[in-house]
Amino acid sequence: MKLLFVHDHPFFHSSDNQYFSGGGLPASVWDRYLKVFDTIDVVGRQGGPLPEAKINYVLSSRKGVSFFPQKNISGLRSRYKNISNATHNLTDLIDNADAIIVRLPSELGLLAVKLCKTKQKPYAVEMVDCPWDGLWNYGSFVAKLYAPLLAWRNRQAVKTSPYTLYVTKEFLQTRYPSPKSVSVNCSNVEISEISEDVLAARLQKISSSKNKVVLGQIGSLKGRFKGVHSVLSVLRKVKSQLPNFEYRILSSGSTPYYEQMVKDYGLEDVVYFDGPLPSGKPVMDWLDSIDIYLHPSFKEGLPRALIEAMSRGCPAIASNVAGIPELLNEDMMINPGDENHLELLIKRLVASETLQQRLAQENHSKSKKYHHALLDKKRTDYLKSFASFSSKCKFNP
């Protein structure tokens, strides 16, 4: 069977026609689908040629996976210019697919759902994020006006979906219900190791004397949705009040905006942009090197990076958006953009070894629910059911 996967994720092509991702869709992610389907056609956005310095990109191409990037249809001007061509291309790809998976929110995904309904082709939705939060919590006045419409469009797409996968246990299900679908909650996190040795090493790290406290965060620097600007603003105010510290950011995307902010705030000696790392051990080793993990996002689904940090026993502070309350205790969460509360929690956590040890144990324990062996079986059973459904019937929305 041939699977068509549709999302707005940008892909960058190399001179030898290999496709790369900014980090969100590495080649390994396709393994979960190839356990059930023979081949995958991937639709995403055209990112353009791969820059010579590949440091911010990971290979997405692999055997059995073909890429069909489309021009951007987000935004009024881009949509007017490119919607006709995208519709034509998606129509052909949908006609040639045996099953279609649409990852939302995404404009290409919403277009694919519309075409699937017209053609009575069964589709499955992966609901991985809340479009309302990003536009409402951190957007222009026009973005706030658009937030209700975009949320409604996604609700309509999910409402009639015969199969729906949510990355949260409750949050996205409540905002974007699919009452008639076969649904499953399954995070897109894949943690292969959650050992007691990791926790023991973390507790030892907390109790040992150290020359500096290392704050860390993982997330794209494209836009301001990950709250990096909030952390920088707080650190500017508390730099003289904290013990010797560093703030390290593991990220993909362009950094000139943040580099200038670091310079303007006088934080050049304490802030480091580490660039992206391959998933797996390199990221886990990086997390082991930090003392406190920060995740003050303005929008999320269920953040993979936060769960990975928890699996390494990292004490964590995060915003209370989307599925994050399913992960952390209320006393370690802030409202998006609440810099005063973020400052208070950073100071409190840095000052208390006892609190760090308690959070390390709590977070490590909670992360066990996201071990890849548990999630893989749930996801594979769901995909097998969807594949069987797709092969047997037409969909009447």
TrEMBL record:
Keywords: Transferase. It holds the Pfam family Glycos_transf_1. One of its GO terms (molecular function) is glycosyltransferase activity. One of its GO terms (biological process) is carbohydrate derivative metabolic process. CDD domains: GT4_PimA-like. InterPro entries: Glyco_trans_1 (IPR001296). Residues 205-362 form the Glycosyl transferase family domain. This is Glycosyltransferase.
